[in-house]
Amino acid sequence: MKIAILPGDGIGPEIIEQAVNVLNALGEKFEMETAVVGGAGYAAHGHPLPDATLKLAQEADAILFGAVGDYQYDALERSLRPEQAILGLRKKLGLFANLRPAILYPELAGASTLKPEVVSGLDILIIRELTGDIYFGQPRGVRTAPDGAFKGEREGFDTMRYAETEIRRIAHVAFQTAQKRDKRLTSVDKANVLETFQFWRDIVTDVHKEYPDVALEHMYVDNAAMQLVRAPKKFDVIVTGNMFGDILSDAAAMLTGSIGMLPSASLDANNKGLYEPSHGSAPDIAGKGIANPLATILSAAMMLRYSLNKAEQADRIETAVKKVLGQGLRTTDIHESGTTKVSTSEMGQAVLKALA
Ligand code: NAD
């Protein structure tokens, strides 16, 4: 099995190093090959997603990705910015399903801004459609308004659209994922206002016929935002479109109070995937040795489960992470009084020890 390792920028290389150590400690035979991406790709080859990096990602069975972005690249034209690498990989590899668990380990209940009884033990999964919706719909741009109350004025416009196939395939991923969990799926839409999302609701309802063992509930996105903050534990799996998923998954991430803990997976139709922490490249703390590597280590666990068919090894890693939290070890971002502050590499070493 071949894994493409793309560390990227900022804290990317530091956290990826810890995850690679963990993969190496499992006693499996993985072929791992590293390539530059993001700002590092631009610096080395003049493009955030160099051809050789894309080729490696295409050939690999799975991709472990750190993060991209740095202030020094902010002035570049949009197509050369580091963030274009991740958009390019999603598009080129057809990674249409983004899985973001929001898990709050009881040991970290104090890290959330919500009351511990509301969030302690939270374990939900948001599935966001990643390659469609208003983010990619054409036409888009700035033009002179052809009609409406502001006819003749300059206006910005985008197009929200979803093809039936796009909705069906994400719905199948969502139902199948729910089958492996608590068998409850909430489909989030805005069917009361948007034609696109009435269509979404109709198709999800139709796909549900193939999964009678999963309880399906439809919810409007405004209500879903409210319920996520009011009673997040009542959700199991949430499936939604690209834009609503972007916003809701960040809200869900912050329920846990610790962006440094949250992994993510972006899958294609054959479960090949790109695995990365939910956070960015954190240039403010890069090189200081204080970044939390657990989101990346947990992303490696997701990679084993979803793309490499090694659920047992995934369980081993997740158990090891729980163990180090139980031991009171904390990086700066999740540190509280009464716990022991550790560096990025000390946290990585502790996970290795817990694995053994
Ligand atoms: P960020 O997630 O990088 O950082 C937000 C805050 O969280 C910062 O204070 C940072 O120090 C902290 N943080 C993030 N990860 C952490 C970790 N593992 N341990 C401890 N603290 C952590 O978001 P941002 O500051 O908005 O963006 C920084 C750069 O990252 C930008 O260039 C942005 O475009 C990029 N970015 C990349 C991705 C990606 O690669 N997929 C995603 C989001 C943002």
UniProtKB/TrEMBL annotation:
Grouped into one coarse class, the protein's main location is cytoplasm
Q: In which pathway does it act?
A: Amino-acid biosynthesis; L-leucine biosynthesis; L-leucine from 3-methyl-2-oxobutanoate: step 3/4
Q: Quote the protein name from its UniProt record.
A: 3-isopropylmalate dehydrogenase
Q: Which NCBIfam families match?
A: leuB
Site positions (Important for catalysis) are Y135, K190
Q: What does this protein do?
A: Catalyzes the oxidation of 3-carboxy-2-hydroxy-4-methylpentanoate (3-isopropylmalate) to 3-carboxy-4-methyl-2-oxopentanoate. The product decarboxylates to 4-methyl-2 oxopentanoate.
**Gene Ontology biological process terms in this record:** L-leucine biosynthetic process
Which coenzyme or cofactor does it need? Mg(2+); Mn(2+)
Cofactor descriptive note: Binds 1 Mg(2+) or Mn(2+) ion per subunit.
How the protein assembles, per its UniProt entry?
Homodimer.
Amino acids binding Mg(2+): D222, D246, D250
UniProt family annotation: Belongs to the isocitrate and isopropylmalate dehydrogenases family. LeuB type 1 subfamily.
What's in the GO CC field? cytosol
Gene3D superfamilies assigned to the protein according to its UniProt record, in alphabetical order: Isopropylmalate Dehydrogenase
Q: Is Transcription tagged as a keyword?
A: no
Instruction: Tell me its EC number(s), please.
Output: 1.1.1.85
